[in-house]
Amino acid sequence: MTIQWRQAIVDNLLKKQRNICKICNNPFADFAPPEIDHIIPLSKGGKDKLENYQLLHAICNKKKYNKVFYTNNLGLKFSEIDSFTLKGRLLLYELSEIKNALIEMRTQSLACQKLSIPRRRITYLMYKYKLPKNPNEWIINSSNMDIPK
User: Fold this and answer.
1) CA separation for the pair 104, 59 (Å, rounded)
2) Burial, 134: exposed, middle or buried (Cβ in 10 Å; 0-12, 13-18, 19+)?
3) Where are the chain's structural domains?
4) pTM higher than 0.85 for the full model?
């Protein structure tokens, strides 16, 4: 990435984001330049395209690491819905990601490695929502799982 091209991207994103970090919703300071981040990380299948870029503070980018906090797949924006609903939608997203990883990888330990989550998280969610051992039998929706819509 050339310096001029990178600066053009930063300028474009600063204008689009109105000089606000997408994670903490605080403005960028002149002494700390924003960092370009992938909304959906490359390690999670995100594309290296302008639509997948966002600007974050350095500390916000380090906290985010390779997680998906802001995802276009669900049409979520943190400022548009309350945290109770957001947690419910993110839980549904997490459960569908776990289901897909379990089907693909065939074992909990390999699925945990792929998703970078502890195995006890999968065990806890299966117990809490009474999910069968076979992920192909999982029916994931908010109505049958008592998850906020």
Assistant:
1) 34
2) exposed
3) 3-64, 83-145
4) no
Per residue, the 3-state secondary structure of the chain, as one string, reads: CCHHHHHHHHHHHHHHHCCECCCCCCECCCCCCCEEEECCCHHHCCCCCHHHEEEECHHHHHHHCCCCCCCCCCCCCCCCCCHHHHHHHHHHHHHHHHHHHHHHHCCHHHHHHHHCCCHHHHHHHHHHCCCCCCHHHCCCCHHHHCCCC
Which residue type does 109 have?
S
Cα–Cα separations (whole angstroms), residue 17 to 6, 23, 25, 87, 148: 16, 11, 10, 24, 29
How far apart are the C-alpha atoms of 54 and 81, rounded to whole Å?
20
Spatial neighbors of 148 by CB under 8 A, at least 6 apart, are: 84, 85, 87, 88, 142
> What would the pLDDT profile of 72-111 be if each residue is shown by its tens digit?
344 444 433 344 455 666 677 778 888 888 888 888 888 8
